[in-house]
Design goal:
Layout: H1 7-20, E1 33-37, H2 53-58, H3 60-66, E2 70-73, H4 101-113, E3 117-122, H5 132-140, E4 152-154, E5 176-178, E6 183-186, H6 201-216, E7 221-224, H7 241-244, H8 262-273, E8 281-284, H9 293-296, H10 309-312, H11 317-334, E9 339-341, H12 350-353, H13 362-367, H14 377-392, E10 397-401, H15 422-426, H16 470-474, H17 480-494, E11 501-502, E12 510-515, E13 519-524, E14 530-531, E15 536-540, H18 546-550, E16 554-555, E17 559-564
Parallel strand pairs: 1-2, 1-10, 2-3, 3-7, 7-8, 9-10
Antiparallel strand pairs: 4-6, 5-6, 11-12, 12-13, 13-17, 14-16, 15-17
The protein binds 1-deoxynojirimycin (NOJ).
Length: 568
């Protein structure tokens, strides 16, 4: 095991954090379980195949029974869905296919009535090409004040017929799009997602207006999309793609990734958050090197930043322990709590990742229709349950992605004709993209779209989705849904401070730690059973009955248990 930080150091650090915070309203986010809803795929109330806000409202009892502290809504704003709603036409409205502002208010009221807080997604790096300021910019022509709100550049060549640089976009293809008059605009993602010019005061002011708009409607916090790319140095000469990525520019000197000036923007946002009581919270989606993450999570900035390291780790004891130690130390550095994520709307679901051999090339596996290599779904299910139980015992906040409470695997067999992710088109059919984790949820085992709605779902559900239906799992005490409900209820009861103390005298393949109040979590990543320490087993990620738990002396392979102990 290659531990970067000695266990004692982490424990001391975490203690410091606890002393200065406590369970006040303003710090609800520090140890919250936040459930991510991808609105178009959660519940469809009107049978048009797209999930909507009233659909979510009807399912609030599911969220309450699950026991989550907050809901994060992925974008529900007006959008042509060129990138699943991350192409926003209007930041201060609801897509008419998804609902109305009044229905948004109803949803917030229903969630708040159950003590569930609400986080909405803010997409500040780019708008959609249907945003009014972008259509104004196109109409106004080169050199106009309207174009100055976005990143327009003259093309190369006599008539500007060549792109300003050879930069490539995240979804593949060029990062510049011509507009027909010699000007090109920058889009780090799809062409339908023009990048904002954050040097423009009107852009800055407009986002403050948006943050206030949703805060005034009762929103408790924000998830900030692509938080690391807003500040850009586009002074001439612009480097080539090859020079952009030179290793020496990754420390705040890259032309548009993780520049230091981005934090000035977030200091301005913090001032807006602090106009509210309790202050609004934020979590940064910032794909930056770990040592740069604390800046985003600082209390003067967004306050918290996603740590995607476990999402990238194999289900392996040494990798999990090292990742957890590193991230607890990093969170302490920023004064934030850490965030734990195993699945979200951008990655292959963890029940499937763990069903595949370590190192599997996931895009290639998706291209094989999920057959090469063949997944061991039973193993994936066991390991996903074990990893989730481990993560839910950690200090900090846990982000759950809709459907993981059902143990849903990835849908790898979607037909090309059904794919919606821009990755598919932009990669010219060489990468399927992220639709396989965005297939609408199965609520019942029968019906047009398994209880999602009254008509077919916008992404087709495979027949095997019925096995995972909420209605079925509600009847089964050994189901993954039952495990999540039990785990969240136990966490609510057991969780106090943010300390964590590692046990080092554990067999190979085992991760064991203790939280305040004698709450111990022990995970056996290996295949063979190992002895359990003394203590009352209060949760198992396996399928043990209560009677079995009471007499358990061995921890089976690929299983996590929580124990209540009075000694370390
Ligand atoms: C990150 C979001 O999670 C992803 O879904 C989106 O495609 C990109 N940002 C661009 O907005």
């Amino acid at each position: 095991m290659t531990d970067t930080f000695p266990a004692e150091e982490v424990v001391t650090s975490a203690l410091d954090v606890v002393r200065t915070t406590d369970a006040e309203a303003a710090t609800w986010w520090r140890q919250a379980v936040v459930y991510q809803i991808y609105p178009r795929s959660f519940a469809d109330s009107n049978g048009d195949g797209l999930g909507d806000l009233p659909g979510i409202t009807t399912r609030v009892p599911h969220l309450a029974a699950l026991g989550v502290d907050a809901v994060w809504l992925s974008p529900f704003y007006p959008s042509a869905l060129a990138d699943g709603g991350y192409d926003v036409d209007d930041y201060r409205d609801v897509d008419p296919r998804i609902g109305t502002l009044e229905q948004f208010d109803d949803l917030v009221a229903a969630l708040h009535a159950h003590g569930i807080r609400v986080v909405v997604d803010i997409v500040p790096n780019h708008s959609s090409n249907r945003h009014r300021w972008f259509t104004d910019a196109l109409a106004a022509g080169p050199g106009s004040p309207e174009r100055a709100r976005y990143v327009f550049r003259r093309g190369q060549g006599p008539d500007g017929e060549l792109p300003p640089t050879d930069w490539t976009a995240m979804f593949g293809g060029p990062a510049w799009e011509p507009v027909g008059d010699g000007d090109w605009y920058l889009h780090l993602f799809a062409p339908e997602q023009p990048d904002w010019n954050w040097d423009h005061p009107e852009v800055r002011e407009d986002f403050h207006t948006t943050l206030r708009f949703w805060s005034d409607r009762g929103v408790d916090g924000f998830r900030i999309d692509v938080a690391h790319a807003l500040a850009k140095d586009l002074s001439e000469p612009l480097p080539s793609q090859a020079d952009l990525r030179a290793p020496d520019v990754l420390d705040g000197m890259h032309r548009f990734e993780d520049r230091d000036e981005v934090h000035e923007i977030y200091r301005g946002w913090r001032a807006v958050f602090d106009e509210y009581d309790p202050p609004r919270t934020a979590v940064a989606e910032a794909w930056v090197p770990a040592h740069r993450r604390a800046r985003y999570a600082s209390p003067e900035g967004l306050g918290q930043a996603f740590n995607f390291d476990l999402l990238l780790a194999d289900p392996d004891a040494a990798q999990f322990r090292r990742t957890i130690e590193d991230n607890l130390a990093l969170a302490h550095e920023s004064g934030a709590s850490s965030t734990w994520v195993l699945s979200n709307h951008d990655v292959v679901r963890h029940a499937t990742r763990y069903a595949l051999p370590a190192g599997t090339d996931l895009p290639a596996w998706l291209m094989s229709g999920g057959t090469d290599p063949a997944p061991d779904l039973e193993r994936g299910r066991r390991l996903a349950r074990a990893a989730t139980a481990l993560v839910l015992a950690l200090p900090g906040s846990t982000y759950l992605y809709q459907g993981e409470e059902l143990g849903l695997p990835e849908v790898a067999e979607l037909d090309a004709a059904d794919l919606q992710d821009p990755t598919w088109q932009r990669s010219q059919g060489t990468e399927k993209g992220r639709d396989g984790c965005r297939v609408p949820l199965p609520w019942t085992a029968h019906g047009a779209s398994l209880g999602f709605g009254d008509g077919p779902a916008h992404l087709p559900q495979p027949a095997w989705f019925a096995e995972y239906a909420v209605s079925r799992q509600e009847e089964d005490p050994t189901s993954t849904l039952a495990l999540y409900r039990r785990a969240l209820a136990a966490r609510r009861r057991l969780q106090t401070g943010e300390q964590l103390e590692w046990a080092d005298d554990v067999p190979a393949g085992v991760v064991r730690f203790r939280r305040p109040g004698g709450w111990t979590s022990m995970t056996n990543f290996g295949p063979a059973a190992v002895p359990l320490p003394a203590g009352r087993v209060v949760l198992s990620s396996g399928t043990h009955t209560d009677d079995e738990l009471a007499t358990l002396t061995q921890l089976p392979g690929e299983t996590t248990v929580w124990l209540e102990t009075t000694t370390a």
